[in-house]
Every structure is written in C-alpha cells, then in structure tokens.
Amino acid sequence: MHKEVLSHWDQPIFPIVALIIFLVCFAVYIYWTYKKSNKKYYEESSQIVLEDGVKHERQ
Known about the structure:
By secondary structure, this protein is mainly alpha-helical. It contains 4 helices and no strands. The chain has one domain. The model has no long low-confidence stretch (mean pLDDT 79).
C-alpha cells in the first residue's frame, strides 16, 4: 500500500527541502566555528590536554 501511494506521488520538493535544511545548518555550523569571538575558546580548549599533563608532572 505504501509503495502504491508513493509511486503515484511525484513530489520532488521533499529532497530539495531536506537539502536546503542541511545546507543552512552546515553554513551556520561553519560560521559558528570560524567566527572571531570563538577564537579564545578554541585556543583555551586546545591547551587543556597539554596543561593536564603538566599538572600531573608537577605534583
């Protein structure tokens, strides 16, 4: 029954809408990652592992 309904329903809009939603989400994610206000956060995060190792050696 589902195959019959979908075979007669020729709507290419859903894949297009899904692609647009994906591209918008991807663009927002890229913007959020590379905006300048997040630079300090990423610099601090990149040092966590290195600082953790130094703390253990000092103790």
